[in-house]
Amino acid sequence: xxxxxxxxxxxxxxxxxxxxxxxxxxxxxxxxxxxxxxxxxxxxxxxxxxxxxxxxxxxxxxxxxxxxxxxxxxxxxxxxxxxxxxxxxxxxxxxxxxxxxxxxxxxxxxxxxxxxxxxxxxxxxxxxxxxxxxxxxxxxxxxxxxxxxxxxxxxxxxxxxxxxxxxxxxxxxxxxxxxxxxxxxxxxxxxxxxxxxxxxxxxxxxxxxxxxxxxxxxxxxxxxxxxxxxxxxxxx
Amino acid sequence: xxxxxxxxxxxxxxxxxxxxxxxxxxxxxxxxxxxxxxxxxxxxxxxxxxxxxxxxxxxxxxxxxxxxxxxxxxxxxxxxxxxxxxxxxxxxxxxxxxxxxxxxxxxxxxxxxxxxxxxxxxxxxxxxxxxxxxxxxxxxxxxxxxxxxxxxxxxxxxxxxxxxxxxxxxxxxxxxxxxxxxxxxxxxxxxxxxxxxxxxxxxxxxxxxxxxxxxxxxxxxxxxxxxxxxxxxxxxxxxxxxxxxxxxxxxxxxxxxxxxxxxxxxxxxxxxxxxx
Lengths: 236, 276
Prior knowledge:
By secondary structure, chain A is of the alpha/beta class. In chain A, about 40% of the residues lie in helices and about 25% in strands.
């Protein structure tokens, strides 16, 4: 148990929409454990609440029920559901990353700066941060001529790769991936898979959603059926 | 992370104030005017910490009390009741129990404010450089050469052309006036900065550059900031945590992405869904 990085128990999320006085359940009672270097894939039909669970772990959503025990680099076990906001902020900066399908960034930054920014925020020197950013962009086959331009002008697939480059440049002990290969061509998808495998080999634990089931078979150590998990939990 | 500022139960009532004021106002009553005595409850029972190096957003529509809150902390207004403790590098300042001279001293050297209206934060009758010199003089910097050098460096950092240093800020564009205000606020290296609707009323492109500048300066200096705004874009780009106010009350607070993506209070849900 000591080398478990993430232990999720009965995590659930629902929304209350005041406007319509209505409760909307999004995901129910999911449980799983994750060790360093492992990837847990959340599997289920569209609308099963996979993204909601990922956001609940990251605390972009307020979880409705459950426990998410995360073991920090310092060896402390923190329940991400109940941790104070400042602790979540610190963990996001240093240990926990989130890769979305969409890149939100200020349109005035160059691609290289977008990728290097989280590293600068971690206090890494400018030159080193830019080196690492360049390395990631090259690994994802973003043409060097584009590094000076802002990603706001890029195609969907290019933006997604910039987003992935940024997240993997920052690295972390736990990464949450929401359809990281959704709008990529086969070659780019291969590059991203290689990057995920590389991070796993370095000990990064991951929770991921893939729209491509072949990737689940290839990359996942655990398959978490989001709908069925709720029933299993109830039976225990 | 340690707080740099602890605000406890801060309340400001304009008018005679009666014992019922707080009970008959607020979001539940859909008003901030006391029906018994006619007083306006601008802020009621506001409590929150601001952590070191944190950028905290205060969001709400006009009249929600967000500016009133910051004005009290910068001594532009006095609270009716409540406390605020400023933990300033070892020193503990109980802000509202200080005498006026002590308050002015703190405000001139250890805090900075950038107002929506540059005429409040700048002296329009002296040059841009003079505006910065004024604040440096108040913090006991007396060498003309040092003041001139510092002012030049600060204006360069906020992208005001040094050639215009000796001009009056009243001749500047709105965006450039904001840059001078930011340079002035930063001039003494204060660890605590208040920004009150700093991009409101500026062209979109100018807004974006001012936001970039603030973000960059925050990353370099690590200054703690309280950012008052009704603009969700400003909140999203600048802040890590956000407080939502309505009728003088804090109705919700949380991580900024959580407030924007999964707002809990009815009012916040309305606010976020109407703007996106």
